Amino acid sequence: MAGRAFAGSLMRKSGQPQLIGTSRQMVELREEISRVARSDAKILVTGESGVGKEVVAQCIHVESPRSNVNFTAVNCGGLPENLLESELFGHVRGSFTGAYRDKPGKLELAHDGTVFLDEIGEMTLRMQGLLLRFLETGELQKVGADGGGRVVNVRVIAATNRSLRDLISQGAFREDLFYRLNVIHIEIPPLRERREDIPLLVEHFLQLFARDPGCAVRSINADALAILSRYSWPGNIRQLVNVVERLVITGREPVATPDDLPPDVRVHEGVSFRPKRERRRTVADDLYKRLIDEHESFWSCVYTLYMDREITRGTMRDVIRMGLEEARGNYRIVARLFNLESRDYKRFLNFLRKHDCQLPFKEFRQ
Ligand SMILES: Nc1ncnc2c1ncn2[C@@H]1O[C@H](COP(=O)(O)OP(=O)(O)OP(=O)(O)O)[C@@H](O)[C@H]1O
Ligand SMILES: [Mg+2]
What we know:
There is one protein chain. By secondary structure, the protein is an alpha/beta fold. The chain has helices spanning 2-14, 24-37, 53-63, 81-89, 106-109, 125-137, 164-169, 175-181, 198-210, 222-230, 236-250, 263-266, 283-292, 298-307, 313-326, 331-337, 345-354, and strands spanning 43-46, 71-75, 90-91, 103-104, 114-118, 155-160, 184-187, 219-220, 255-256. Helices cover 46% and strands 9% of the residues.
């Protein structure tokens, strides 16, 4: 993604990962980063997709005594199990077809540095077992090697946007590994819970992308900024970066207006955005507004009405559809948008399933 590459290149130039934001949560987060950077304790970073888990891990590394050695990121969700095993632990020549020579793993190469294990919740149970053994002994067992191998010293920071406690209860994540990784827990709040950071982030990325001489846009007007500040940002800062980049590339005038914003960002702005076909405001619209704008809980505002038969199944499905559109098909984000506690997620899905209101998420993934 161009946005990531662009933002990343700026980071390399200054040599420092950037954590923008002046909200109370961000100030506390920076303090916590400084505190935990001094130790070698393992850290679990959690938060929704795009909130900045990797940036936080990089900041910890940069502030730590290991900063002169490398920071190595491994995406545990991006590779099939056997490739991930070799990626992490390395392999010896001839251990599988195509293993023409010995290859060190990322853990070995990161000796004395920091290893960032991203999407840890996606690891298979067997890989979790191998990782646990490594964390207990520090000893690398290469794929195809007979005995135990070299002992390496790495600081491990793991991250996930899934609830590991839920995965544990489903038998998909090892509890002993969870406790090993969760020595220090850093939860990054979603962007919609620190809206005061939005103008600052928009301004930062606008300046960054607008440096390109081919771009007309130089700033954004107050109405457009107000819409961005009200929007719920299910994809968090990554989504914001993309929206700003698109705005800069597609805008024709120096000052961007609401018309330059993508429709999904404007969709809940009745005044500034009109759908092609006007439709009357429905009960579902009002309920959705209460969930999103007034932060009422799904249980108190929608569920109760449905159980009391004051609203129909059709209305319930419409509310869910709006949530899925906003969350781009991710039911877990829908649950958060609807102000549910994470422990209520299963109950929410069971309810939808039982009442035939669980719409297929695929069509919302685009
Ligand atoms: N506080 C911040 N200030 C500036 N940029 C940020 C901040 N947080 C995140 N970003 C930027 O947003 C993008 C997403 O951040 P990052 O990759 O760290 O998120 P993530 O939580 O790891 O996402 P995912 O769960 O999707 O892997 C990156 O381009 C990153 O530079
Ligand atoms: Mg990430």
